[in-house]
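In this section we walk through a basic example: taking a raw amino acid sequence and producing a predicted 3D structure, encoded as discrete structure tokens. The instruction is simple. Fold the sequence below.
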Amino acid sequence: MMALRLHGKESLRLEDVPEPKLDESGAIVKVRATSICATDVKAYVTGARTKIPITLGHEFSGDVVEASEEFKNYIGRRVVVNPNIFCGRCEYCLSGEHVLCPNRYAIGIDVDGSFAEYVKIPAQAFHLGGVLEIPDHLSYEEASLIEPLAACFRGQLKLNIRPGDVVTIIGAGPIGLMHFMLAKSFGASKIIMSEVDGKRIEIAKRLGVEYIVNPLEEDIEKFILNLTNGRGSDVVVVAVGSPHAQKDALKIVGRGGRVNFFAGLPAGLEEVPINTNFIHYKQITVLGTSMQTPLEFKKTLELVASGLINVKPLLTHRYSLENGIEAFTKTLKAEGLKIVITP
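The resulting token sequence is shown next.
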């Protein structure tokens, strides 16, 4: 079968590799749609963050074409898979906080992923509810976005967004726009987005974002204080890996507000000098989230299936697996939003 394999920094190759073999327990999925994630891009740019060499790809959907006896009833089903495989036995898994599992590993990061014609799914993914059937009315492409949307869903649950809240999202890329859609569905009364890229500003406007500030052209703090009668934002989501954005978040959040450093920072920029008096005197809650639990993954699929969240506008480009390197090039240039490969 064909697969996109990462061999090191900026060394991505389309290769003919053996099809995955079924273990004693588990399944093989024929990949129908797999989207490119910022994590894939970081692995490509740095040659790190993953096992090397590896078949990348962890946002995917497809058909179960082969399964061990335990999962025979899944054969022929259209499924979406949570790529994070948890042990289910540690104190974090038992408490429902699977994302903190010290034994976790991920498809497309630690083992071969979905930028291929077929991908192997371990039994543990089934046992913990990580393999979900796709409703008939949802496309494979829409289903491939459940994983990143579920990570955003977790972030917003931890922020406890309430009806009437003012929410500011820094970064209007695919993840920022997912946060916009979720905050809207949670009842935020006003959603403000901060973005420096002109093309993404126009896309955000087309998707219904009413309040957008370019911090390179306007003072973001003044902009938000003016919109909130001097109160500041109840919630701030930092959806871009920028130290400056993290600093801005502490300035623009209101008293008693909540901040999520949702995006990780690039290597070498992890340590950020901040004014901790903002946290102390405004009594802010600052947190970070990543990944999603099996329950959050399931709830996200239900949100999309119900029509409350429409991910179709985020799907801007489609490529065959044979043209996967071209798809990566477009993603690196930040052209479009979610780019999907259809093996």
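Looking at the output, two observations stand out. The chain has a mean pLDDT of 96. The domain at 150-287 is CATH 3.40.50.720 (Rossmann fold). In the next section we compare this with other chains.
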